[in-house]
């Protein structure tokens, strides 16, 4: 599985989501490119706890978390939160 495939799964599984997925570290010989990092922005996160937001991402990835993806670092934002975050950099 590559970063484009992970992005596609997240974006198709969460309404109006925009995902940016990268590989945050060198590939592990045992798991190859199974370590990913994702920044996901969606209005669907509004009013949800961080745990609920992350669960939406895991749900969008369906069974891939136990087969194709070894680890996923994620940051989730509503569009308003992301604008504040990105504006502060």
From TrEMBL:
Domain of life: Archaea
One Pfam short name: BolA
Cited PANTHER family: BOLA TRANSCRIPTION REGULATOR, BOLA-LIKE PROTEIN 1
Family label: Belongs to the BolA/IbaG family.
Protein name: BolA family transcriptional regulator
Species this chain originates from: Salinigranum rubrum
Lineage, top ranks: Archaea, Methanobacteriati, Methanobacteriota, Stenosarchaea group, Halobacteria
């Amino acid at each position: 599985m590559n970063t484009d495939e992970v992005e596609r799964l997240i974006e198709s599984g969460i309404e109006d989501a925009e995902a940016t997925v990268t590989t945050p570290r060198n590939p592990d010989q045992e798991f190859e490119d199974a370590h990913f990092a994702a920044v996901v922005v969606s209005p669907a996160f509004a009013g949800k706890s961080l745990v609920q937001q992350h669960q939406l991402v895991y749900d969008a990835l369906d069974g891939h978390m136990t087969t194709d993806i070894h680890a996923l670092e994620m940051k989730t934002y509503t569009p308003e939160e992301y604008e504040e975050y990105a504006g502060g950099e």
